[in-house]
Amino acid sequence: MIRIGLVGVGFMGWIHYLAYKHLKGAQLAAVCSRDKAKLAGDWRSIRGNFGPPGEMVDLSGVKKYERLDDLLADPDIDLIDVCNPTHLHPDTAIAALQAGKHVLVEKAIALKPEQADAMVAAAKAAGKLLMVAHVLPFFPEFRYAAQVIKDGRYGKLLAGHFKRVISRPDWSADIGDAAKTGGPAVDLHVHDTHFIGLVCGVPKGVFSTGVSDTSVVQHLTTSYDYGSGGPSVTCSSGALAMSGRPFVHGYELYLERAALVYESGT
After folding, report:
1. 79: domain CATH number?
2. How much is the pTM?
3. How many CA atoms lie less than 13 Å away from 255 in the CB half-sphere?
4. pLDDT tens, 229-262?
5. What is the CATH number of the domain that holds 153?
6. How far apart are the C-alpha atoms of 153 and 15, rounded to whole Å?
7. Is the dihedral of CA 108, 110, 112, 117 positive or negative?
8. Residue 58: which residues within 8 A CB-CB, separation 6 or more?
9. How far is 266 from 56, CA to CA, in rounded Å?
10. Which of 33, 118, 158, 206 makes a 20 to 30 Å CA pair with 151?
11. Strand duo 232-241 + 247-255: pairing
């Protein structure tokens, strides 16, 4: 049985908590938060752009820690699940790896490439797993698309467009803070950029244009360059939708003998 320590009890921590209820071979063994109310099981303040709102949770049998160091010193914890804001991911993950724990870290792995490199190096030095919680390959609609592209049953991929758009995240101050998350467009864009790299390979280059305010990129469209023989692929992500459309993602993929179309929320 893998015993998990959850760091960060916000929106993603709540979503992970719900997922842990259905796991086999692993269990939530500890939570770490600076919020005493959340350590007491009051998660009713949690909101997000999908999934249910937070509620009172039963943490009996689950260890509670206010300090990360105390959690990492617990010999009963096998894996640290990093769900705190992105700017804290590198220090949290590296400390956990150095403490001999495996790590699952929410996307984005970090805000700077050199931070991600340091995390990878720490995992190699510790001989522990470092896993980034990119979920799209596990969604049925995206898993099917990946299989179709890989096995070539409808010929090669000629072109495609992905989108991931939310309404302004007024439920979280952190996600709109570029210093903490990169801003909503970047925080969303990393999902599809990861999936595009998975099914198409690393592009030769990218070109992006977007909409920004004084502090953060709110909406971003990127073209991925695969050269004259490769597919024409673009993606748009951002937080410009109205409140009546809190979250939508999907794709249109054009293959030689088929077109795949998926859009959530329709």
Report:
1. 3.40.50.720
2. 0.91
3. 19
4. 899 999 999 988 898 888 999 999 999 999 999 9
5. 3.30.360.10
6. 35
7. negative
8. 41
9. 31
10. 206
11. unpaired
